[in-house]
UniProtKB/TrEMBL annotation:
Signal peptide limits: 1-21
Keywords of the record: Hydrolase, Signal
Family note: Belongs to the glycosyl hydrolase 16 family.
CDD domains the record matches: GH16_laminarinase_like
Annotated organism of origin: Pedobacter petrophilus
InterPro entries for this protein: Beta-glucanase-like (IPR000757), ConA-like_dom_sf (IPR013320), Glycosyl_Hydrlase_16 (IPR050546)
Protein name: Family 16 glycosylhydrolase
Domain GH16, first and last residues per copy: 27-282
GO MF annotations, alphabetized: hydrolase activity, hydrolyzing O-glycosyl compounds
Amino acid sequence: MQYIPCSLLVFITTFCAPLRAQNVAHSQYFGDGYQLVWADEFNKDGSPNPENWTYEQGFVRNEELQWYQPENAFCKNGSLVIEARKTEKPNPDYVPESKNWRKNRKSIHYTSACLITKGLKSWQYGRFEMRAKIDISKGLWPAFWTLGVEGAWPANGEIDIMEYYRGKILANIASTARDGKTKWFSQTKAVDELGGKAWAKKFHIWRMDWDEQSISLFMDNVLLNKTSCSDLDNDDRKGIHPFKQKHYILLDLAIGGMNGGDPKGTKFPNRFEIDYVRVYQK
């Protein structure tokens, strides 16, 4: 057997593995007519690439418990980590007697991060893919989703490629109903059916195939939701079609709020770990 110096083995491990991953990313969907147009493999330790990501900050939506801040997101060992932490600090936006839920909370009890490509990267149509591992503890609400760049929600359109809360995986698409409220096309899958905690210890692949005709959402190559774009137009007929425009990506780990459940028995810090996010187009 030929002797290979340790220094060469370190080089191969450190540099060649990411190159192999990049080659796989570029080639794996050639047979379907797709080419890779953008990806973040999160291979460099430290802060996420500022050319790809900015951040939501503060209390943002759904009366969720977490205060979003950039420092809860970091890259380590080839993954993006979004870390939810339990804390106790004053809410800088606090206003006594305010009726606004963002301002009437005197304290911040949890922090997390929401990374967005808004203003940096956006796409119309394609195959969007994420490989990630989620924790299914009570009160956690991780998501990989998109929003349209033009218009106010929900008229701009929302696609939840991966969403989890209260024991179920969700694959959702939303636009505006005739009365101006949200129109949802939603499918769910109980995590217990998938294997529960053993399933959650592993990485899984979530994917969206989106073209002019339909939006299809998959988990580990199993179709969860396919909806015709003709059904997804805003029923109030105001403005643009929500899915005939570019969308940007969001990655977040929310806590509690209107859907997330009660996190009191959940251990913190807690993590949503993303191996990669990729976008392909034909």
